[in-house]
Amino acid sequence: MALIVQKYGGTSVGTVDRIQEVARRVAKTAKLGHSVVVVVSAMGKTTDGLVKLAKEISANPNRREMDMLLSTGEQVSIALLSMALQELGQPAISLTGAQVGIVTEAAHTRARILRIDPNRLESQLNSGKVVVVAGFQGIADAGELEITTLGRGGSDTSAVALAAALRADKCEIYTDVPGILTTDPRLVPEAQLMDEITCDEMLELASLGAKVLHPRAVEIAKNYGVPLVVLSSWSDAPGTRVVSPPHSRGRWRAWSSQKRWMRWNLT
Ligand code: ADP
Ligand code: ASP
Ligand code: MG
Question: Pocket around ligand 1: residues whose beta carbon is below 6 Å from it?
Fold first, then answer.
């Protein structure tokens, strides 16, 4: 059976009904016998709302306090999704970025992930639980333990990094469009859905402003050959595969045979 990381964005968990729908989808995957790690974003426009609150108090809010504030959004989602899974009879546990051992740089509001210690996560998976992880956040352990965030849209990066650390069979990014299109479908209705895109092409799209995937997520997928797919939360359509060149798939295999603590060097 496979180990699958699924990530659901803000719109996909924007209401109680949607959280329950996500729970049904996650439970269905778990019932097939797969181990499932779910990464979620804050509900709907929660993060925007929190940024607005901070800006009402300070034109230039302290970055550490911004991380303290913004990281709360994802904590609401993980608790509610975990409860929704438990209501369906699916054992589940919610964990923050710090609790799953996502260690980052100390750069508040734009921290990069340095390493992940998947021990706690793996033991929860082994006990048959779905593990629901707060996206977008980590912990910096340079001296003091500090909550950090990964930059707007960073839950994608949490998901791909966890998939890399766990050597998952697949990382599925569920969102509010059917996959990656030739251009933003909200702006250009004739945009065409792609079956497949390379990481480099995706990075180029991102540099032109397509925020469908966080660029760091694409870089990690590329460097570690993580099997990545972007697909709709509302349908069973196959979505878009984001593929890596063959050499990085080799690197993935080589890396996979190494041991637990991982350190990325993507610069
Ligand atoms: P999530 O909350 O699930 O992370 P995002 O809002 O971050 O979702 O990203 C999905 C959005 O990205 C879509 O609603 C779409 O408007 C936008 N988008 C921009 N460019 C593209 C593209 N080329 N293909 C697909 N979606 C795109
Ligand atoms: N909630 C964060 C944001 O709105 C992270 C994410 O959605 O990926 O940017
Ligand atoms: Mg996003």
Answer: 9-12, 41, 153, 175-177, 180-181, 183-186, 205, 210-212
